[in-house]
Amino acid sequence: MTDLEKIRLSKRMSELGICSRREADGYIERGWVFVDGVKISELGTKVYPNQKITLNKAAETSQQARVTILINKPIGYVSGQAEQGYKPAAVLFKAENRYDQDQSLLTFHPMQSKGMAPAGRLDIDSTGLLVLTQDGRVAKQLIGEDSAVDKEYLVRVLGQLSEKDMALLNHGLSLDGAALKPAQVSWQNKDQLRFVLMEGKKRQIRRMCELVGLKVVGLKRIRIGRVLLGDLPLGQWRYLREDEQF
């Protein structure tokens, strides 16, 4: 093999789903990463794809301590950083907003908000399931370039929809000059559509509906992968349980 076939250790760790690249750099600096049993502490180290990468107990403990929460985001909150006077959904992560039926044994602590970031977006005028996490592995699974996690929405609309336009919603539309991935779109009831998407372009569902002459008057995300919004009340949150996986 040649050096050209090597890749950065942090990138390889991210590819393997061990952690995010940023987390990998932190682990490497602390001497928590081993390649074929040899401790690596130099940033920028490159490895061959077939080499075995392991973490020590300190890194594993650090990962286990990272929390992921599910929020039922109300209208009027942005997913990420505050903008134009609107508050980020993260401000809802406080003790008094915890769902009283949360089955997790975790104890809330304000320090858990450190490094908490949204794993995906949900428009300011949309409600439903939003994931915030400290865990780079979760973020990569949900929003990484090769993410295979689908998302389900209930969308209330105004307007008429022909069979041809329904077929276009399922496959055939383009946004921002690029063809959209196939979707699953069907009527939930007489004025509400069910969308299942494998991607999440900005305001994608609203823009898709506009292209076929529909106006969205309500949008709610009810599922991300295998995790359901369920009966989580609007404006409240709960921890992702150990037995739950996206």
Question: Can you walk me through this structure?
Answer:
By secondary structure, this protein is of the alpha+beta class. The chain has three domains: 3-64, Structural Genomics Hypothetical 15.5 Kd Protein In mrcA-pckA Intergenic Region, Chain A (Roll), CATH 3.10.290; 68-146 and 228-239, 2-Layer Sandwich (Alpha-Beta Plaits), CATH 3.30.70; 151-224, 2-Layer Sandwich (Pseudouridine synthase), CATH 3.30.2350.10. It is 20% helix and 27% strand. The chain has six helices and 16 strands. It has helices at residues 9-15, 21-29, 57-64, 136-143, 163-170, 204-211, and strands at 7-8, 33-35, 38-40, 46-47, 53-55, 68-73, 117-118, 127-133, 151-158, 174-175, 178-179, 184-189, 192-197, 215-224, 227-228, 237-239. The strands form four sheets. Strands 6, 7, 8, 9, 12, 13, 14, 15 and 16 form a nine-stranded mixed beta sheet that branches. A three-stranded antiparallel beta sheet has the order 3-2-5. Strands 1-4 form a two-stranded antiparallel ribbon. Strand 7 and strand 8 form a beta hairpin. Helix 1 (9-15) crosses helix 2 (21-29). The longest helix has 9 residues, at 21-29. It is globular and about 65 Å long. It starts with 6 loop residues before the first strand and ends in a 7-residue tail after the last strand. The model has no long low-confidence stretch (mean pLDDT 91).
